[in-house]
Amino acid sequence: MTERKPSGMSFETWVEQQIRRAQDEGAFEGLSLAGRPLPRRDREKSSYEWALEWARREEADVAVMLPSGLALRKEREELPALIARQTSEVAVRALVEAHNARVDEYYRRPVEGVWVPVGMADVEETVAEWRRSRPVQQPAPAVPPAAPPSRRRRWLRLRRR
User: Could you tell me if residue 125 is inside a domain?
Assistant: First the structure.
């Protein structure tokens, strides 16, 4: 709303005037929940429950709302699936080292609320497991190089001229 309340007019009167103008323009026509009662709640929700419901309704990532320890533990659980999609050993090693760096930073910082223990991944063991899960690739048979053209024929062609 860009229009300012005129001086000398009460706030209530000004709001009523804005609502009446919107009704006349049809701004309230065709609303999805028009005429239906608001949903009743059996009990009051905590702020965390409300935030989770809002995030799901807005299709937001709920994982970003987790405390840091739980988020790292969730990341650790999803690490094997993420590693399985990697195509090179260097990428696997970088992924695990980055996770371990985040866990190390979590251990070094003071934590608000409940402290959640998170284990670090063993880089060498993870890389070895990734190698074992890869299909064995047979080396492609060496194709012999094409034989160079014979010199003899060229010499014969030159002599015949």
Answer: yes
